């Protein structure tokens, strides 16, 4: 522990993430572990942990959204022509051959991989960031992650944010932002305008452009104001940019492009799940403030958050090839036209949706009523209620179904 910084020690020492809680009272083989008796008169520490204590973290979280959608999915699956699943947004198209070959070639990997990523991977990430994010300088750090969701969920905790701190998330957003705040013990505030946050001690601000679920794109001036606001208060800005390569009617920009040459207090989160069909590989990365990236690296090294070596090799191949990205983008563009036309003809209004992987739709009713209406036609969509109270009259429709299933949905509508 001598090499840990004071802030990292704070993360490991917090009661909610105590070593005993993390280990669950077992060794690596699953055997019960007994600790030395406490001082005289004190209750000894043993492997006995009450059910309430073991379940406390999970008990404080909301129901998993996709579990709540199961009844609608079952109803939609009864359609004579089968289910058209436009809900979760999981890729269905093949993993590009160049990426599969790189994974296979690196599969003989008996040793531990580097948490920081191989030199080749770090170079590939830096090259991709330079091309796609147009950073205002080259002094940014990079770090591979096990997909983007785990980083989103654990970022507040990894940064030492906890009880008494506030994290700002968009009013309508990816549910894992809020879950990550709850895991850390901090307080969540939903706000699209930082002037409405008030005097709270804000430690982290999430922005998301293009947005999941709305497809809204934030202009550069807005992103720059968020960075300035956060820096004035010593807060960190985390920008979820996983859908940056999927622009339709508006061109999104990375927050790294508006930092005026300094990346202090700024992190950009990216994923290869959608651009390269690698959701099954769990491949992502974070770039930005080199001090923060190093802080994340040190804690992740201790906690074993490591991208497997074959996946690191696959990421190098994916980041170095843009032909497959353009091919996939063209697939999504065709499906988007078919679905948007069909939903509009069926009386839906499409809002935002100028970039990203989804259509944000409304019929002017409760989102669960719309989900049921679509399920009667064998189509499954995600209720806007999943993404916050402000989304309760919308549904999210993903472009990630095959051409045949997209055509089936259009015909049913």
TrEMBL record:
Domain of life from the UniProt record: Bacteria
InterPro entries cross-referenced by the UniProt entry: Aminotransferase_I/II_large (IPR004839), LL-DAP_aminotransferase (IPR050881), NHTrfase_class1_PyrdxlP-BS (IPR004838), OxyQ (IPR019880), PyrdxlP-dep_Trfase (IPR015424), PyrdxlP-dep_Trfase_major (IPR015421), PyrdxlP-dep_Trfase_small (IPR015422)
Protein's UniProt keywords contain Transferase: yes
GO MF term set: succinyldiaminopimelate transaminase activity
Name of the molecule in the record: Aminotransferase
UniProt similarity note: Belongs to the class-I pyridoxal-phosphate-dependent aminotransferase family.
Location of the region described as Disordered in the Swiss-Prot/TrEMBL record: 28-47
Pfam families the UniProt entry points to: Aminotran_1_2 (PF00155)
EC number: 2.6.1.-
Annotated source species: Dactylosporangium roseum
Lineage of origin: Bacteria, Bacillati, Actinomycetota, Actinomycetes, Micromonosporales
Alphabetized SUPFAM superfamilies for the sequence: PLP-dependent transferases
Annotated ranges, domain Aminotransferase class I/classII large: 83-413
Name of the top EC class for this enzyme: transferase
């Amino acid at each position: 522990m001598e090499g840990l910084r004071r802030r990292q020690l704070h993360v490991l020492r917090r009661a909610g993430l105590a070593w005993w809680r993390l280990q669950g009272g077992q060794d690596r083989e699953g055997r019960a572990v007994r600790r030395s008796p406490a001082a005289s008169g004190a209750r000894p520490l043993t492997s006995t942990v009450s059910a309430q204590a073991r379940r406390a973290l999970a008990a404080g979280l909301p129901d998993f959204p996709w579990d709540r959608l199961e009844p609608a999915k079952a109803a939609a699956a009864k359609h004579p022509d089968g289910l058209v699943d436009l809900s979760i947004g999981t890729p269905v198209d093949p993993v590009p051959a160049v990426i599969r070959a790189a994974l296979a070639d690196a599969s003989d990997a008996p040793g531990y991989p580097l948490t920081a990523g191989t030199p080749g991977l770090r170079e590939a990430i830096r090259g991709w960031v330079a091309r796609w994010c147009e950073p205002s300088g080259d002094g940014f750090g990079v770090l591979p992650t096990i997909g983007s969701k785990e980083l989103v969920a654990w970022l507040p905790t990894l940064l030492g944010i906890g009880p008494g701190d506030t994290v700002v998330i968009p009013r309508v957003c990816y549910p894992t932002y809020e879950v990550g705040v709850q895991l850390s013990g901090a307080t969540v505030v939903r706000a699209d305008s930082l002037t409405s946050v008030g005097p709270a001690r804000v430690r982290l601000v999430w922005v998301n452009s293009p947005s999941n679920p709305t497809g809204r794109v934030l202009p550069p001036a807005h992103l720059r104001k968020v960075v300035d606001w956060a820096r004035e208060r010593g807060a960190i800005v985390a920008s979820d940019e996983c859908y940056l390569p999927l622009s339709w009617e508006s061109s999104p920009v990375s927050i790294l492009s508006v930092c005026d040459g300094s990346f202090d207090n700024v992190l950009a989160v990216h994923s290869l799940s959608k651009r390269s069909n690698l959701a099954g590989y769990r491949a992502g990365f974070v770039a930005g403030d080199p001090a923060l990236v190093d802080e994340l690296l040190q804690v992740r090294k201790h906690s074993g958050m490591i991208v497997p070596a074959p996946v690191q090799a696959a990421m190098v191949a994916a980041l170095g090839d843009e032909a497959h990205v353009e091919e996939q983008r063209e697939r999504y563009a065709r499906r988007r036209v078919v679905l948007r036309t069909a939903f509009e003809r069926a009386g839906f209004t499409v809002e935002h949706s100028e970039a990203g992987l989804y259509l944000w739709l409304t019929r002017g009713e409760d989102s669960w009523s719309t989900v049921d209406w679509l399920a009667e036609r064998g189509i499954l969509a995600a209720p806007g209620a999943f993404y916050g109270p402000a989304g309760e009259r919308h549904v999210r429709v993903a472009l990630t179904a095959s051409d045949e299933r997209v055509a089936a949905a259009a015909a049913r509508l």
